[in-house]
Specification:
By secondary structure, the chain is of the alpha/beta class. Helix content is 25%, strand content 27%. Helix 4 packs across helix 5.
């Protein structure tokens, strides 16, 4: 099978498309024919990380060093191990390979039915494989962190980095909870952030929310650019600062919750660009720029039917 192999740390060119052995599922695993995957900022950070730091850092971040790149996927189950009970051949699924040695920028991947090394659920019926692949990591991160702050109706929530992967989900989830949402992003992305439900938008290049005298119940830094100490004046009494530096935990249950929200029309993935598997290097170059809107998808199978 074809896969994007990580040959070292450094620029996008360390990623090479190669023929590798097709995996065989263990008793508790399913073999998934990958239709779509993604390139996330996390993929870029790990690609650039010096090799001597990768062991302790990937453990700290919850990832595992991979031979094949990619942490998100959507596809069709081709075979299941004898102990798998919840999935069958032909099921359309989506999920992650976060704790696995082999990633999802490949034609096939084996994912355990349970266990936390990778998570998997049936794909939302109303989105394509490419859209489904862009849901898990950004969606679960936003879902868990907002829930930790007990966001509720009437809360004033500011999302910093509102046009990114986590940010676009955070805006939509906060609105689903009934909050009044202010999205902070670049001027080029103001219309996008409005379109996914933000009540107010702010161009960070023209206005610093920390200096305008307004206060919020929650300030959520989705791009790891802020410090809690610098946001104290922007938080009301009992206000909460959230950051994507905080640890989150992937689970099948969280993924199923996201599936339900997507199918109910409460949230939707935002796709910036789509690249074929053979152009993963170009996709990484684009994500390297730090200006992606929502998610960057990798198409592995030519068609992307839901």
């Amino acid at each position: 099978m074809k896969a994007i192999v990580i040959t070292g740390s450094g620029p996008p060119e360390v990623l090479q498309i190669r023929d590798v052995e097709k995996p065989t599922p263990r008793d508790n695993e399913m073999l998934v024919r990958v239709h779509a995957s993604t390139v996330t900022m996390g993929d870029v950070i790990l690609r650039k990380m010096p090799r001597f730091l990768m062991g302790p850092m990937v453990t700290l971040m919850g990832f595992r060093m991979k031979k094949v790149a990619g942490h998100e996927l959507a596809g069709i189950v081709e075979a299941v191990g004898r102990d798998v009970r919840s999935f069958s051949k032909g099921d359309h699924v989506f999920g992650t390979t976060t704790g696995l040695k082999c990633g999802a920028n490949a034609e096939y991947v084996c994912i355990p039915e349970e266990g936390g090394r990778g998570v998997v659920a049936r794909k939302p019926a109303n989105v394509s494989f490419g859209e489904a692949a862009a849901i898990p990591i950004g969606g679960m991160t936003a879902l868990q962190l907002l829930r930790s702050a007990n966001v509720k109706s009437g809360d004033r929530v500011l999302i910093y980095g509102a046009s990114g992967s986590v940010g676009t989900y955070a805006v939509q989830l906060a609105k689903h909870y009934g909050a009044h949402v202010t999205g902070v992003c670049s001027g080029a992305n103001l219309d996008l952030v409005r379109s996914i439900g933000a009540d107010e938008v702010m161009d960070y290049t023209k206005e610093d929310f920390r200096k305008n005298g307004k206060t919020y119940d929650v300030v959520f830094d989705t791009v790891r650019k802020l410090r809690s100490s610098g946001c104290r004046k922007s938080l009301g009494k009992n206000g909460v600062f959230l950051s994507c530096w905080s640890a989150t935990r992937e689970s099948n249950e969280e993924l199923i919750r996201l599936k339900e929200l997507v199918e109910a029309g409460k949230i939707r993935p935002v796709i910036d660009r789509t690249y074929p598997l053979e152009q993963v290097v170009e996709a990484h170059r684009y994500v390297d720029l730090g200006h992606k809107r929502g998610n960057v998808v990798i198409t592995v199978v030519g068609d992307d039917d839901a």
